[in-house]
């Protein structure tokens, strides 16, 4: 097992360090994805179906497709899919996202959907059950993922989704920007020490909040899921504008709040929301651009190249949140590769 970990202490950290390479490998599937897109029949609606981390990747797909192309899109949890099946027809493209290709709820949903609609599966494990059922298959090319917590496979799912959106929307600019991402991802991995310090500071926290808007609302959900899975700390992801409709009542002195604040059209509103939280005594951990002067008085900040605007930020900002969960887990003496009560793939409904 030591040899398989390639010198790393855990599979999870090894898999996080593989992310820059995974981005390159998944981008090399671009031509295949372009070809699949050209084969789609006529559709006027897209429906994503997935569970867990794959569900969060799907949510980013929904934001991207609706905002960049304007095709009505929805995301359904595979375990809730049967309640929505009557709305499917031959003009719906149903996209299943699954790392393992073996998740029971997702397989069941695919069997229902293929009777009425065209289906596409975005899968990591080659030859898995889902790949034998779907009309089209895109492989995420992340390689085997051993750690129960999904990390590199999430990034590769996102790359596939961005490529899909770039080809569906004939968006050359988005395509060009994707090729910058793998270079910039390496920089994030060089600030491990800083994230370790933040992890030490907050390892005794009982609750965490993760706040993001738009494309980064799903990033907030995924950051909170990683925390829950491997540190056993309660974490909640919220859309920035929704706090004042209830959860702001839970903000108290020294509660850690992770604010996702990339540059872009949503910046000002999210900034104001984070100010409201800070004014109520929360300890802020901000992810933002390294030229943002508004962050000067923030002690814990994780800074990115300003080229990474809000559309691209979900691809890279999540890496810091994966590392944060990993190091809190280590600080607490938990084995992040084998969290209690969880299995790598959920093969029962
Ligand atoms: C991710 O960290 C989790 N272990 C879990 O939520 C997972 O994403 C979910 O079970 C879906 O698995 P799949 O992608 O293999 O279908």
UniProtKB/TrEMBL annotation:
Tell me the compartments it is located in.
Cytoplasm
Q: Name one GO molecular function term.
A: carbohydrate derivative binding
For this record, an example GO cellular component is:
cytoplasm
GO biological process assignments: carbohydrate metabolic process; fructose 6-phosphate metabolic process; protein N-linked glycosylation; UDP-N-acetylglucosamine metabolic process
Q: Which residues form the active site?
A: 344
Q: Which UniProt keywords apply?
A: Aminotransferase, Cytoplasm, Glutamine amidotransferase, Repeat, Transferase
Give yes or no: UniProt keyword Cytoplasm.
yes
Q: Which domain of life is it from?
A: Archaea
Known EC number(s)?
2.6.1.16
Q: How does it assemble?
A: Homodimer.
Please give the function described in this protein's UniProt entry.
Answer: Catalyzes the first step in hexosamine metabolism, converting fructose-6P into glucosamine-6P using glutamine as a nitrogen source.
Q: What's this protein's name?
A: Glutamine--fructose-6-phosphate aminotransferase [isomerizing]
Species in which this protein is naturally found: Methanosphaera stadtmanae (strain ATCC 43021 / DSM 3091 / JCM 11832 / MCB-3)
Note the residue range shown relative to the complete protein. Answer: 242 to 590 of 590
């Amino acid at each position: 097992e030591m040899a398989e970990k390639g010198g790393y202490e855990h599979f999870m950290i090894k898999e996080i360090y593989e992310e820059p390479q995974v981005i390159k490998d998944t981008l090399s599937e671009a031509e295949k994805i372009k070809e699949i897109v050209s084969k789609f029949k006529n559709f006027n609606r897209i429906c994503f179906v997935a569970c867990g981390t794959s569900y969060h990747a799907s949510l980013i797909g929904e934001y991207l497709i609706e905002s960049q192309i304007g095709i009505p899109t929805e995301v359904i949890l595979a375990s809730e899919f049967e309640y929505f099946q009557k709305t499917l027809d031959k003009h719906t493209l149903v996209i299943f996202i699954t790392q393992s290709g073996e998740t029971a709820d997702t397989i069941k949903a695919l069997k229902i959907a293929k009777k009425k609609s065209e289906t596409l599966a975005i899968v990591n494990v080659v030859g898995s059950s889902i790949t034998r059922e779907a009309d089209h298959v895109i492989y995420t090319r992340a390689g085997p993922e051993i750690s129960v917590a999904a990390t590199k496979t999430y990034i590769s799912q996102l790359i596939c989704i961005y490529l899909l959106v770039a080809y569906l929307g004939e968006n050359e600019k988005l395509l060009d920007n994707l090729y910058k991402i793998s270079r910039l991802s390496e920089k994030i991995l060089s600030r491990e020490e800083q994230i370790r310090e933040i992890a030490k500071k907050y390892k005794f926290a009982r609750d965490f909040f993760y706040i993001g808007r738009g494309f980064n609302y799903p990033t907030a959900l995924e950051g909170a899921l990683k925390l829950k899975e491997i540190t056993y700390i309660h974490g909640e992801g919220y859309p920035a504008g929704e706090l004042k409709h209830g959860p702001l009542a839970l903000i108290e002195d020294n509660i850690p709040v992770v604010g996702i604040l990339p540059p872009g059209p949503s910046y000002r509103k999210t900034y104001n929301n984070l100010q409201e939280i800070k004014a109520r005594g929360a300890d802020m951990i901000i992810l933002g651009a390294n030229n943002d002067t508004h962050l000067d008085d923030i002690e814990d900040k994780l800074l990115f190249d300003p080229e990474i605007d809000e559309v691209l930020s979900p691809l890279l900002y999540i890496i810091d949140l994966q590392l944060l969960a990993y190091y809190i887990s280590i600080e607490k003496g938990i084995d992040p590769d084998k969290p209690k009560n969880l299995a790598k793939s959920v093969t029962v409904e």
